[in-house]
Amino acid sequence: MPNPENRGAVGVARNGLDTMAERLARYLAGRSSRRSALARLGGWAAAIPAFPLLPVWRRDARAAAPAAPSPFAAKAQVKDDTKCDYWRYCAIDGNLCTTCGGGVHSCPPGTHPSPTSWIGTCFNPQDRRSYLIAYRDCCGQDACNEQNCLGMDGDLPTYRPQANNDIIWCFGTGSLLYNCSTAVIVGTAE
Amino acid sequence: MLAERRCRVARRIARSLLAATVLTAVSTFTPAHAAEPILQTEESDVVTLPPGGPHRVLVEDGVYRHSKDGRVYVVDLDTGRLLGMVQAAYNANMVADPAGKAFYVAETTWERGNRGKRHDMLAAYDPRTLEMVADIDLPGRALITPKKPDMAIGADGHYVYVYDSSPTNAVHVYDTALKSVVRTVDVPGCGLVYPWGNTGFSSICGDGSLANVQMDAKGKPTLTRTPPFFVPDRDPVFEHSPEVGANGHVWFISYSGLIYETTLGTQSSVAKPWSIQEAAGLKAASDARAPFEVTWRPGGWQLAALRARDSHLFVLMHKGTFWTHKEAGSELWELDLKTHRLVRRIPLAAHSMMVGVTQDAQSRIMLTDEAGDLVVLDGADGKPVRKIGALGDALIFTAAPGE
After folding, report:
1. Which segment of the chain is annotated as a signal peptide (chain B) (predicted)?
2. Which of B68, B114, B353, B397 is the best mutation test for A, with the most CBs of A within 10 A?
3. How many CB atoms lie within 10 A of CB A48?
4. What is the pTM of this model?
């Protein structure tokens, strides 16, 4: 059974909060009309798109977000997807399609994307979120052999195929000749 | 006038030069021409290699730059000469018969180069003529950047095992006497082949356990399981953990550097692991739970080799964090597997992804580098012996006689 004294104490606190809220409401009502409130709201609504502050705001809001979870993530960059240290390549193994005529999620002409892939988890140092990355191979031509990279974050041996980057993931594409690898965002890992 | 004179001078110089050239030619070649016998006409023929010694090895080149064109080289480590080669197309695997009677290559091609019907094949080669002695179709094979235990051979050379992963995990059993695939053994949830004895093999399973397969006289398999002995997400064991196939003795090496001495069989047994780093007087390395710790760690492709006669293990080591398990080694550590002690640390002139070792008394260590060289060290002290320059493109593993 609850202690009556405690209940009394809660009642006092509630009364105090009510009083404060009432005072604040009366103060605001006395100094603003409904129209002015709407005008201010409208002003904010118009101004928000003019300030590209969203990432900063999100970062502030996520001040407690985790630090880079792996050595690769700690050194990763977000600007150049033709370099091995681009954040999405934390577990890529092979030729970057971005240097083979394709893009980070596009196969070069003359090749075909694999419908299957393995999924890695990479940390984006810009928004400090972890994303699920599908390493889809582009297939049908021999190795493109431009920029070759070997990310190893979370890469397990082939007896854990769903987390291995040595398997030729070209199933269902005609010939299983490997040309290059893409790194497609398929969701957040949070 | 001036131009005419210049012309005359030029003509005179040209005449003098011509005369000098003719005189030189006559004086140089005439007497020699008389002394040299006329070269004999020849017949085309093909070399048959003499019987090989312990330093005649096989080296697989994955040719990553155009991996459709892999090959296996036959190399003499004593002379540094390439003795021959055979095709090993697209993520091929190879094993040598333990008695040296043949070697086998599992490979994949498409009828029209990069398209058309797929062929998975197993070719058997005579090791002295490099002529094919068998050439059969396989039901399939796993297409993985080649790992040595994707293929294996039994102790008496009767069965060759080929790992397949599509559509399901299985091992095709090739009978070398019948020259045909006699059985396919399913190993659900498991992969790779570590042979033991004449008719058994084990596979590593996704939960850190082992699947053990024994075939009876008719080739009928019985599968048993050994409970998990490691946590794959935390500290998985390398596929290229070295083994003595004859007695099923494997030293599974984990990413962090723990060694699990294992005796394979229907009831595989795994000893308590010990740390490579502790054997070298360092602290044991962290696993995936503390990935930022920088220390000496094992890494590479064929990252370890075993010299069975004295139970010495050679492991490529580099300094790095966790998740650097495929980084090339900057040092080669030699460990005594009986005493769990470090024998020596061998600093490498060039970082290597691969180490192999011959099994004889004057053993040789094989390494590679980014240029595709085969680097040979003396197995007794780690001193350089020779470098076979640009042997290939991407040397990924070796097979030495009797290993």
Report:
1. 1-34
2. B114
3. 11
4. 0.84
> At residue A58, what are phi and psi to the nearest 5 degrees?
-65, -40
**Residue whose tokens read 């890992």:** A189
Instruction: Indicate the pLDDT class of residue A190, thresholds 50, 70 and 90.
Output: confident
CA distance B241 to B227: 19
* Residue B264 DSSP one-character state: -
Q: Round the average pLDDT of chain A to a whole number and report it.
A: 78
Q: How confident is the model at residue A159 (pLDDT cuts 50, 70, 90)?
A: very high
Domains of chain B listed by start with CATH number: 89-228 (2.130.10.10)
Rounded distance, CA A11 to CA A4, Å?
A: 10
Whose tokens are 């017949």? That residue is: B43
Quick check: B24 pLDDT over 60? no
Q: What is the pLDDT of residue A161?
A: 94
Task: Answer whether B329's CB lies under 8 Å from B300's CB.
Answer: yes
Q: How many CA atoms lie within 13 A of B39 on its CB side?
A: 3
pLDDT at B201 over 90: yes
Give the residue ranges of DSSP H helices in B90-183.
none
What are the residue ranges of helices labelled H in chain A? 4-31, 34-47, 54-61, 71-75
Known active-site residue A142: no
List residues of B whose CB lies inside 8 A of any A CB: 64-68, 90-91, 108, 110, 114-116, 118, 142-145, 147, 165-166, 190-192, 203-206, 232-233, 236-239, 291-292, 320-327
- The whole-angstrom separation of Cα B38 and Cα B157 is 51
DSSP H or E stretch at residue B249:
strand B249-253
The 10 Å CB-count burial string (b at 16+, else e) for A125-144 is beebbbbebbbbbbbbbbbb
Give, in order, the Cα–Cα distances in Å from A115 to each of A112, A122, A149. 9, 21, 22
Say what the pLDDT of residue B167 is. Answer: 86
Is the ipTM, as predicted for this complex, more than 0.85? Answer: yes
Closest among A179, A78, A111 to B90, alpha carbons compared: A179
B147 CB contacts (<8 Å, ≥6 apart)?
A158, A166, B93, B192, B239, B240
The DSSP annotation for B320-331 comes to E-SS-TTSPEEE
Which residue among the candidates A81, A137, A153, A155 is catalytic per the annotation?
A: A137
| Chain centre distance of CA A48 | 22
Residue A37, SS3 per DSSP: helix
Whether residue B167 is preceded by a cis peptide bond, meaning omega within 30 degrees of 0, is yes
pLDDT at A44: 43
- Cα–Cα distance, B318 to A11 (Å, whole number): 67
Going by C-alpha positions, the residue among B303, B297, B260, B304 that lies closest to residue B282 is: B297
- Token pair in block for residue B117: 């019907």
